[in-house]
Amino acid sequence: MKILIVEDDADLREITTRSLEKERYVVSQAPDYRTALCKIEDYDYDCILLDIMLPDGSGLDLLEELKAMGKRTNVIILSAKDSLEDKVQGLDLGADDYLPKPFHLAELHARIKSLLRRNQREGEQSLRFGNIEVFPDRFRVMVEGKEVDLNRKEYDILYYFMCRPGRLVNKNTLAESVWGDHIDQVDNFDFIYTQIKNLRKRLKEAGATPELKSVYGFGYKFVVE
């Protein structure tokens, strides 16, 4: 699951990033309006933590941009501006929640999980495809009721495809979603091929019916045949 933090306070940005990474989220940062706009244009996020008061613009304008792009992204406004007008305007523009500063990280984590559950197969506690069941809150994977041991990236890849069964996924999109924005700096995708190969092996050994199929020249598709 990938989160974008749009926040101009460097200390708060870093503290929040470290806290979320401990919860196994892929986290990207934007210190200002321009950087945030570039990121939401180029990438998709499961959740955006959005400050209203940015040095070069307003977080409310970013909400309008998201709406204009047609991107359905969970947004939690994090702002010291706790006026009723800002709160109502943010929610009207598509924000899902509003958390005033200062806030407790434990509450932020709970609100993020609540939002993601709400959009995850109508609020179910697990994802199912074929005979695979994934429990996101506990990072557990079961095949026919038996737990499958995966490393973090194998799990992240599987979770990504469990949310998109049957969809054709470009390898660049997969890499950026699982490894983050800095994927632009790598020379090749050998590390993805390795993780995909290992995940396929583990699922096959566990007797999973869904398969990660390669689509030549494009990417992958998670299907049951």
From TrEMBL:
Gene3D superfamilies associated with the record: 3.40.50.2300, 6.10.250.690, Winged helix-like DNA-binding domain superfamily/Winged helix DNA-binding domain
InterPro entries, sorted: CheY-like_superfamily (IPR011006), OmpR/PhoB-type_DNA-bd (IPR001867), Sig_transdc_resp-reg_receiver (IPR001789), WalR-like (IPR039420), WH-like_DNA-bd_sf (IPR036388)
Keyword RNA-binding: no
GO molecular function, one term: phosphorelay response regulator activity
This protein's UniProt keywords: DNA-binding, Phosphoprotein, Transcription, Transcription regulation, Two-component regulatory system
A GO BP annotation: regulation of DNA-templated transcription
Family matches, as SUPFAM superfamilies: CheY-like
This protein's name: Response regulator receiver domain protein
Taxonomy of the source species: Bacteria, Pseudomonadati, Bacteroidota, Bacteroidia, Bacteroidales
